[in-house]
Amino acid sequence: MATTNAKALLFVLVLSAAMISVGATYLTVEGPVSALLYNNGTLNLGKIGPGESFYVLASATTANASGAIVNIGWDRLEAVSLPSGWSAQASPLYENPMKMKVTVAPTAANGTYNMTLRAVNVGNYSKLGNLTFTAYINVTPDVLSTSVTPLNISAGVGQPVNLQVVINNTGASDDPFLVNATGLPAWDSPIEVIASHSSSNTYLYPVFVDEPGIYHFNLTINSTTSPLIHKSYPVTLTAQSSLINDFMATGQGVVLSPIIYEPAYAAMLLLSDIYNLIFK
User: Fold this and answer.
1) Distance in Å from the first CA to the final CA of the chain
2) pLDDT digits (tens, 9 = 90+) for 60-71
3) Structural domain range at position 216
């Protein structure tokens, strides 16, 4: 009999807890991670580099104490407290989903930090009050893995060749990166790419030289927000003239050589024209 009563009491407690959960006001976090939070909950946002910014996205839809859905229940997402040197921008009023921005201090040391964030029902119009939660994030410059291929390339003089650059952003920031080749003569052509958080993307970066030779340079990947986040790869480019390239260059130039060579230059020009007709 005692055992039966204990089981019945346990059932009532579990049912009561379930009913409380169903009727509880909640916050649906959509980025940079997904989570369902209740008041005084906790959230792990992953990792971020020093000086980087990230966005916390959350739905404005929730439920009131009776369990009824309120489509625009939360009016703003804001920071209550932040680590020293950090900054935040609250989401605009009545935005759905709500999107607030947090910027990490550029001098933040490696480690796990916490911040207190809050979803606000302005004026308590929907009788929701506020929902406060603690978010944790790990600060580290190790927020991306990258690769560059090939590291040894051959090309004709003046012929662009593409390097394949893979950026796997494992952090919480949608950080812009500059990809550039440093060390090539007369070359300064960086490209900016956006590496979305928790995603891997492949980009093509073209290089070329206008003189034959063997060139050693670095392909660099640098964060635009933090000098601590960067990668560099040594690349060797061997540039050489091809027979067709020589024919085309000769045929298009002004020749002031002895007249005896003119038939040879004419033949080279003819060959270059035939090559262009067939292959281009």
Assistant:
1) 93
2) 999 988 888 988
3) 144-240
